[in-house]
Design the sequence.
């Protein structure tokens, strides 16, 4: 996957930073009037359609979604005109999506916030005044310093949405230097249950799929061709595998998404039944002897970690015996013969991928459904193998670290209410504001939200608005943002953030090919107005509060990181990355099958734990002494995972699957999980019906939500080229279900749940299962500038008015389904149960 | 026919997609100058592989950005349609744009060019890559010897006849640019195959961003180009692999359509309207 010629040919070296002279394309320059011949060798270049001049090209990285593709930006006379995929990226192969193409809109939209703003009216009155950065930082420091000085740093809460790469590092660095662990995230509204399910098995992996080498793909609940957390690197490889190698793709979904439409077959499946169908596929594969034994020695399927492979096979058969295809058909609506056919195809393929995502996991016991997907992969030896479900491999950056504060404390408000979730390793962020309202575990005095619109992205978002509005609950509220939105409208101070096209970062999103890509983000243009990177803001605050950070600016942070990260450093460090944008180790090979590595366990302090078969270093685990370690055992020692060395695999110590998250496990794939069992959850993957679905009346419908290809959940509505294509979100409803309610296509309808009601329009279609209503969750913006909400923001940022605004033609802005979805968590993982809500639908 | 081989075999394999490999092949012909194909003008064309279009709209938006296309109109869109009855429902995607028509057999002038009051205008010479100069008639809308149908906005009078005449309805008024010969009106606008990129050896913007490699651009006059190979391999010069063959326009956007869905998905323009050419996701 490497190509030196290509890299040399691509003249980003000359095009980087401000170094590139415009006007000629060197040897590529055409004679006036003549035609040069298009070639991919010249990709990465762009020219002005009006003047023909070559544009300045700067390598950087996208941030429209978490995929964070490496990109190049084309700048003309100081204005960013165009974004393309970075042609040398081994992850993205030079491609980006519609959202990435619309990144230009993030910089130049008429409602962009460009100056620090202080609230002057009551919260929600939309009255603001512009203040200086010094005044803004002085004010924030005046709220933070007393907390720091009093030894109550936990009363400062930082709530973020997408902070990745160095943006995450500087935030954690600042919070550590301040001493607050009260940090709220958003993963539990995204796909938290997926990770909690996986952590109980192979640890903290991020699963991807090796489509380049696969022969068969089964997709549960993922709209991979429209939207995925690693969309461009994976989706393009999948469509090419299908077109070029005739790889079949079967998509189980309640709705005919673009992914389902482009699949070999769309297999409609009832809501919440993905795990059951997977288990019935396991049933078929086990009973028909189509399984492969290879991975069984790494699986634990009963209490006995030393069970023989034959015993394990018998145990898996017994576990899934009741999940016959006929039983699965009854519950899921998928014909039993269809399940058999797909199971056989999957098992017989040389290599096969099972995909699972939000449709599978954002349910009651969603984490357990993910475990079923892992089981299907493991029994067919399609786990961490070429062509199978593999680990995404990301960059391992080193970065400078500031001195931590002596006092380190956090409020227990980010993991849900007491007893709500057994393993909230990815938090329970939908309950952060409800917990602040409740107050039983304390409330922050200073609340800082960055890249997170709590009053739009969570369930029951109207309640979230009420909490943000109440000064008794949140005395001082800061918002870092580029657009006035549902949450920042209640802030006391709004800090104008830079867009991702104006800032420095290192980035690390995974590659599905097993070789990590190191890449950076650098400003394509000077930040507009007085917008400022969070790194600079942290540095300014640290100085005012009275501690020092290990960097002065974000650029400095990224420079230091490039110059201290092995590999990148030797390649030329920061200067190399500025020029080229991307770097990978050309000698690196995919690490498939890493779990088989033999491990030397002859060193000092290494014990073999009888209960789990784990070799562990008791000293590294922090046990008091050897006797204490032996007495408590591996599972009974608090930090035992720090001492993990190897797993006994049929008498040989092997690396296996080490515990690498806060979830304690053995080195085996714990399909039988002591941890789950200890909290009263199924020890082995099973089928647990959603309680609400068991008591549905005959007129009740399921509500599900989804994403479309041209929007992220909450951060693209102000992008005009995207909202022009998708600005309304009529509810998908099957013609039969609609007819029963006398609803016709385009009719206004009411959708009511136990917590509220919305009015929308009906999109009557054959592309959805009867009994379900599906509403995309991007629309219904109360505030997101003229393009997103139809009304200009109350804050005039001073951005040059977009001459295109007068051409805006759409009047509809949709409705937001989250306001009728309660915040309700998967009791295993704490994941928000987006797909479990029951509604009544009628003509409005 | 080509003497030189691209130094970049690995890269082409890496990209693997037909589009990439093709464009590389095209690149060979120019540099030699001795090749037979290079002695005449290229004939640019686009192949749309409907097996690979996933309806992502990256092309639609890439075009908007590249060409600063105003809101309310498009130079390329993806049409989509759902048909059939649950549970055997189907949905398909159809990227459409200017077909850069050759024109009918008789006069080889496409309808949009034919109706342009400024055509035929000045006689001009167009230098081919081999250095040969090829004569053609200029106009506000005209056909260049390389097959591209282009608009010279400095000559446009904003009459809108070409917008009406195009059976595909891919033209519209550009609210940002005045008609050069009648500045009280707006100039007509449409896909120009990113000539500003093509002339600099770079593929059109929509092709560059297409993750499925559903859009393949190249020279039909070069038998080694990917478009030529695809046209041959999939037998695309048939009435069923282009849009509105019956109009006699001889379109040069070809569709690979093994499932025969092109006519099912395609929504034609209604006379006097362009609402079929606004990209919308339901």
Sequence:
């Amino acid at each position: 996957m490497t190509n030196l010629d290509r890299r040399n040919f691509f003249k980003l070296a000359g095009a980087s930073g401000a170094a590139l002279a415009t006007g000629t394309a060197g040897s590529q320059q055409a004679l006036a009037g003549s035609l040069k011949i298009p070639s991919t060798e010249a990709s990465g270049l762009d020219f002005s359609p009006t003047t023909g001049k070559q544009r300045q090209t700067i390598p950087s990285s996208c941030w429209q979604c978490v995929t964070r593709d490496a990109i190049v930006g084309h700048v003309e006379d100081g204005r960013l005109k165009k974004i393309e995929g970075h042609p040398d990226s081994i992850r993205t192969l030079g491609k980006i999506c519609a959202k990435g193409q619309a990144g230009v809109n993030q910089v130049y939209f008429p409602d962009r916030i460009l100056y620090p703003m202080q609230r002057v009216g009551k919260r929600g009155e939309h009255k603001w005044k512009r203040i200086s950065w010094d005044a803004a930082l002085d004010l924030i420091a005046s709220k933070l310093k007393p907390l720091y000085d009093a030894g109550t740093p936990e009363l400062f809460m930082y709530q973020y949405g997408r902070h990745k790469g160095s943006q995450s590092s500087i935030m954690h660095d600042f919070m550590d230097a301040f001493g607050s662990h009260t940090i709220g995230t958003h993963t539990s509204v995204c796909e938290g249950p997926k990770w909690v399910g996986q952590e109980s098995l192979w640890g903290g992996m991020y699963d991807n799929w090796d489509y380049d080498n696969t022969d068969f793909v089964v997709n549960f609940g993922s709209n991979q061709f429209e939207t995925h957390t690693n969309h461009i690197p994976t989706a393009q490889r999948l469509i090419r595998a299908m077109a070029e190698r005739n790889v079949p793709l079967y998509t189980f979904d309640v709705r005919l998404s673009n992914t389902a439409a482009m699949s070999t077959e769309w297999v409609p499946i009832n809501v919440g039944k993905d795990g059951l169908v997977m288990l019935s596929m396991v049933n078929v594969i086990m009973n028909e002897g189509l399984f492969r034994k290879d991975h069984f020695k790494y699986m634990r399927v009963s209490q006995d970690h030393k069970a023989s492979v034959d015993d394990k096979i018998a145990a898996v058969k017994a576990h899934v015996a009741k999940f016959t295809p006929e039983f699965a058909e009854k519950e899921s609506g998928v014909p039993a013969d269809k399940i058999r056919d797909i199971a056989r195809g999957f098992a017989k393929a040389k290599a096969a991928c099972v995909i699972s995502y939000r449709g599978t996991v954002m349910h009651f016991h969603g984490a357990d459904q993910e475990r079923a997907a892992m089981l299907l992969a493991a029994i067919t030896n399609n786990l961490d193998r070429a062509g199978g479900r593999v680990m995404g491999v990301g960059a391992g950056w080193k970065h400078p670290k500031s001195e931590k504060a002596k006092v380190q404390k956090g409020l227990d408000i980010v993991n849900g209410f007491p007893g709500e979730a057994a393993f909230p390793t990815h938090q329970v962020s939908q309950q952060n504001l409800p917990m602040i309202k409740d107050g039983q575990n304390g409330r922050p005095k200073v609340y800082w939200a960055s890249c997170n619109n709590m009053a739009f992205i969570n369930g029951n978002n109207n309640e979230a608005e009420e909490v943000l509005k109440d000064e008794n609950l949140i005395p001082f509220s800061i918002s870092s943002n580029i657009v006035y939105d549902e949450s920042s409208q209640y802030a006391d101070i709004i800090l104008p953030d830079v867009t991702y096209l104006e800032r420095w970062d290192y980035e690390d999103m995974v590659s599905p090919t097993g070789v990590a890509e190191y890449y950076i983000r650098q400003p394509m243009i000077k930040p507009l107005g007085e917008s400022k990177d969070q790194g600079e803001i942290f540095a300014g605050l640290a100085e005012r509060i009275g501690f020092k950070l290990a960097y002065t600016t974000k650029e400095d942070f990224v420079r230091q990181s490039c110059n201290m990260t092995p590999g990148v450093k030797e390649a030329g460090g920061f200067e190399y990355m500025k020029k080229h944008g991307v770097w990978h180790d050309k000698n690196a090979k995919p690490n498939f099958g890493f779990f088989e590595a033999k491990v030397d366990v002859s060193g000092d302090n290494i014990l073999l734990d009888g209960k789990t078969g784990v070799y562990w270093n008791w000293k590294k685990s922090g046990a008091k002494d050897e006797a204490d370690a032996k007495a408590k055992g591996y599972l009974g020692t608090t930090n035992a995972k720090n001492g993990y060395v190897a797993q006994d695999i049929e008498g040989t110590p092997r690396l296996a699957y080490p515990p690498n998250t806060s979830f304690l496990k053995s080195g085996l794939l714990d399909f039988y999980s002591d941890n789950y069992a200890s909290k009263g959850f199924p020890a082995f993957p099973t089928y647990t019906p959603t309680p609400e679905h068991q008591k549905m009346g005959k007129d009740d419908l399921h509500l599900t939500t989804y994403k479309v290809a041209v929007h992220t959940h909450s951060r693209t509505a102000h992008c005009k080229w995207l909202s022009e294509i998708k600005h309304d979100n009529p509810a998908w409803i099957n013609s039969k279900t609609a007819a029963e309610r006398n609803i016709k296509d385009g009719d206004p309808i009411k959708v009511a749940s136990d917590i509220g009601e919305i009015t929308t329009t009906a999109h009557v279609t054959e592309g959805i299962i009867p009994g379900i209503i599906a509403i995309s969750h991007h629309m219904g913006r109360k505030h997101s500038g003229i393009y997103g909400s139809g009304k200009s923001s109350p804050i005039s940022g001073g951005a040059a008015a977009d001459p295109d605004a007068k051409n805006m033609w759409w009047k509809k802005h949709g409705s937001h389904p989250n306001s009728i979805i309660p915040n309700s968590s998967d009791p295993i993982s704490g994941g928000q149960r987006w797909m479990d809500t029951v509604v009544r639908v009628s003509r409005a | 026919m080509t003497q030189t081989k691209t130094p970049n075999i690995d890269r082409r394999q890496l990209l693997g997609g037909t589009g990439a490999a093709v464009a590389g092949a095209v690149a060979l012909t120019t540099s030699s100058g001795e090749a037979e194909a290079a002695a005449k003008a290229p004939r640019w064309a686009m192949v749309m592989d409907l097996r690979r279009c996933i309806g992502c709209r990256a092309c639609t938006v890439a075009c908007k950005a590249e060409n600063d296309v105003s809101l309310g109109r498009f130079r390329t869109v993806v049409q989509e349609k759902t048909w059939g009855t649950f549970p055997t429902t189907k949905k398909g995607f159809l990227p459409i744009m200017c077909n850069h028509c050759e024109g009918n057999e008789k006069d080889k002038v496409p309808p949009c060019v034919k109706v342009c009051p400024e055509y035929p205008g000045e006689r001009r010479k167009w230098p081919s890559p081999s250095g040969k100069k090829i004569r053609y008639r200029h106009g506000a809308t005209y056909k260049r010897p390389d097959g591209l149908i282009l608009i010279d906005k400095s000559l446009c009078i904003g009459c809108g006849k070409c917008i009406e005449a195009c059976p595909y309805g891919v033209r519209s008024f550009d609210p940002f640019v005045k008609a050069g010969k009648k500045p009280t009106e707006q100039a007509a606008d449409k896909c120009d195959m990113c000539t500003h990129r093509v002339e600099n050896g770079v593929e059109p913007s929509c092709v560059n961003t297409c993750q499925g490699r559903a859009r393949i651009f190249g020279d039909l006059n070069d038998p080694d180009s990917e478009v030529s190979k695809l046209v041959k391999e999939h037998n695309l010069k048939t009435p069923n692999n282009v849009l509105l063959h019956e109009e006699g326009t001889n379109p040069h956007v070809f569709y690979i359509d093994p499932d025969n869905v092109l006519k099912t998905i395609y929504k034609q323009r209604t006379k006097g309207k362009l609402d079929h050419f606004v990209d919308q996701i339901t």
Observations:
- The first helix of chain A runs from residue 4 to 9.
- Chain A has five domains: 4-107, 133-189+418-583, 207-391, 594-678, 693-843.
